Amino acid sequence: MGQIGCCESAEQIEQQSREPASALSRKDGADIYNNRMVETQPIVTITGVTGFVGSHVAATFLKDGKYKVRGTVRSKTNDAKIGPLKAGLGDLFDELELVEADLLDEASIIKACEGSTYVVHVASPFAPQLPEDELVKPAV
Ligand SMILES: NC(=O)c1ccc[n+]([C@@H]2O[C@H](COP(=O)([O-])OP(=O)(O)OC[C@H]3O[C@@H](n4cnc5c(N)ncnc54)[C@H](OP(=O)(O)O)[C@@H]3O)[C@@H](O)[C@H]2O)c1
Questions:
Q1: Which structural domain, as residue segments, surrounds residue 124?
Q2: Please, are residues 71 and 96 in contact by the beta-carbon 8 Å criterion?
Q3: pLDDT tens, 17-58?
Q4: Residue-level pLDDT at 5
Q5: Domain check: are 82 and 109 in the same one?
Q6: Dist. CA 42 → ligand 1 center (Å)
Q7: Does residue 49 share a domain with residue 17?
Q8: What average pLDDT does the structure give for the chain?
């Protein structure tokens, strides 16, 4: 009997895959559930994906193709913010998962980052003329 992947025999995989709710992780990042190959991609969450920096970071990860890319916005119905992002990303926009989160609402940020392997935190008000409460509180 030949080897599956680089390290486990078919017998080992079959025995382990009978265990409930367990998956075998291979070195290449794929998982095997009940002898079925399931490709997994690490989730990267980018806060402030509508922003100048966030949109470029998102485009870089999406073009790379090795990540499931999630981006936070304060409102998914804010066309003034989402429209330019959509236009800038083109077809890649369809690969982007948008979730709502506000830096002033800790629970929303924690929820947005759930399951992420990486978080790129670039959301921040970027207008020095804002009053301290609106500029510093969300940033810190
Ligand atoms: N632009 C530059 O050249 C540059 C250079 C160096 C460092 N930086 C730093 O990078 C960071 C981002 O700059 P930027 O140019 O990308 O700013 P930006 O274009 O104004 O984008 C700001 C982003 O932050 C989000 N945001 C603002 N307040 C938020 C809040 N309370 N909760 C959740 N999201 C919030 C906005 O989301 P909404 O769509 O919800 O408004 C938007 O996506 C800033 O800290 C800035 O100092 C920027």
A1: 43-139
A2: yes
A3: 455 445 555 555 566 666 666 668 999 999 999 999 999 999
A4: 42
A5: yes
A6: 24
A7: no
A8: 83
pLDDT reading at 77 higher than 90: yes
- 27 and 83 together in one domain: no
Identify the residues whose C-beta falls under 6 Å from ligand 1. Answer: 48, 50-54, 73-74, 81, 102-104, 122-126, 138
CA 34 to chain centre: 26
pLDDT tens-digit map of 125-140: 988 888 888 888 888 7
What per-residue confidence (pLDDT) applies to 32?
A: 63
| Shared domain check, 59 and 20 | no
Instruction: State the DSSP string of 122-139.
Output: ------TTS-HHHHHHHH
* For the CA of 48, the nearest atom of ligand 1: 43
Angle in degrees, CA 48, 50, 56, rounded to 5: 90
- CA-to-CA distance for 20 and 107, rounded, in angstroms? 31
**Distance (Å, whole) CA 57 – CA 64:** 11
Residues 11 and 65 in one domain: no
Structural domain total, the chain: 2
- Adjacent-strand bridge partners of 44: 69, 118
